[in-house]
User: Fold this.
Amino acid sequence: MLKQTAKQLAIATTAAIALSAGVASAQQACSNYTVADGDTLATIAIAAYGTSNYQPIFNANRSGITNPNALEPGLVLALPCEDGSLPDGRSAQEIIAAEESRFAQTKRSSTYEPPIKLVTGNGWAPFADESLNGGGFITRLGTTALQRGGNARDFSVSFVDDWNSHLDVLLPLGAFDVSMAWVQPDCTNRTYEWSKETEVRCTQFDASVPVYDTVFGVYSLPDSSYAGATSYEQLKGSTVCRMTGWGLADLEGAGLQAPETITLLQPVTARECVDAVLNGTADVATFEVQLMSDTLSEMGLTANDVVENPFVSTVQSLRFIVHRSNPFGRQYLSMLNKGLNEMRESGEWYAVVSDTLREHNEKLMAASN
Assistant:
């Protein structure tokens, strides 16, 4: 693939962008595509949008994809349009406006209940960042859920950028009720030795239903011996980079535990992980594909400079969490769950996500000009 301009790279960060000029393929944005033998989500994304970032296609077809690295030939995928809508569907803005109008007509209780205190953090666009409408799509999903599913609960939203403090201090002390959003480990799986972090998350916190499913890729230099690993087992002995505050349960469950089988680097930012791979400090970096796409764009790199392993990835669910010492914690999670379920049924969930991705992309384009 030819080296992209900064503007093209910015466009490539979401699937809410039409097919780049000069790319001729049956895989086109704003259409339905039937998977052929040998297709992967990455190859489809490259043909349709000029990027290997396939998370938006995954979002639009979540119910039909169980393994992003093993697509079944014949599967029909909806490739999102320029405005984020699905082929032959209403735009995100139309769906959001209709749901907001419907809620405005709902009779609210006159009984006072204190606002639910929500907390998230900056530096994680398009998921959570004050620069985006509603604070990013994770924040918008949380606040909207409290106004759906029979809920009509007031709330406050704060941004505390020290993400670790959410779990260590803010939720345990009751400064906030709900933190948005975290990967909660499978706490029923005791087939491996839990790290202290996993132990804390499983014994001190409760979590909502999945809010957003994201693909965690494994990235390395093209000529690395780990670029073609076909299992996590083959990553043993490597130096792995994943940012501090990000859960490690998926790695631990696959037998990659530090310091026994891997060396672990945990810097603050995704850019530091990419730098570590480029300078040889780390063999691989592993985190979600949307953030990797944005990070490569910001650094002026392409998917050929740091490649995604086509065989090894995990699907992880971001959730809202509460501390078990909060007497109303489970009640708040129940409200959020009801709202999220209604949003998925009405299409508002996808509309909020795609609308924020569109906004995020526009900001990246403006910054690159």
